[in-house]
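In the current project phase, our protein records have gained a structure token line. A sample record follows, to show the layout:
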Amino acid sequence: MNNEDLNNAKTCIQDLSNTLGVSSKDTLEILLKSSKVIKYEKHNIIPNNLLKETLCIVIKGIVRYFANDERIEDQTLRFAFSNEILSLHTDSRNREEQLQAISDCAILTIQYNVLDGASKQNELLKTYINRTTFAKLKYEIYLLRMSPEERYKILIKRYKHIFLLIPLKYIASYLNITPQALCRIRKRIIQKDRQK
């Protein structure tokens, strides 16, 4: 690991340890030594089976979850940013939900058996992963009940610099509208803001 990856990994492991209530320096060292950082270049697909046996945390970059169905164009489901755990809503063997690096990414991986051995808090970890996954899913369902313009406003409020980080086509797909419709919404909102 280079210095930047090592520092990012330490931060993620410390955050995870705080969540799990692990305070032993020995345990933190075990987790750090047994972790690996896997890098993915922009546009590469992250294999689903990686999430089956390892806890994966984005330490640098942005990951896009998308539904892959040959009958329709890819649908962006959600994004994962730095210091977020990756998890699938479907079985890891199922190819319907996939992950893609939309920027150069570094993913911290820790084998579940190491994590379980280092911390007797495995149930707490499962609960934490389920809770964060459920919160994201709840947020996505909340967005689906709104008009595209309302969804856009909430997205901008939550992720101020999203348009600097993520291609427009993925944001439009996430909002379930065309890139052209997204441009019209952005233009309309900018004009309203100028009139104020």
Residues 3-142 form a domain with the Jelly Rolls fold (CATH 2.60.120.10). The chain has a mean pLDDT of 81. The chain has two domains: 3-142, 146-196. The beta strands are 36-40, 45-46, 54-60, 63-67, 75-80, 85-86, 97-101, 105-111.
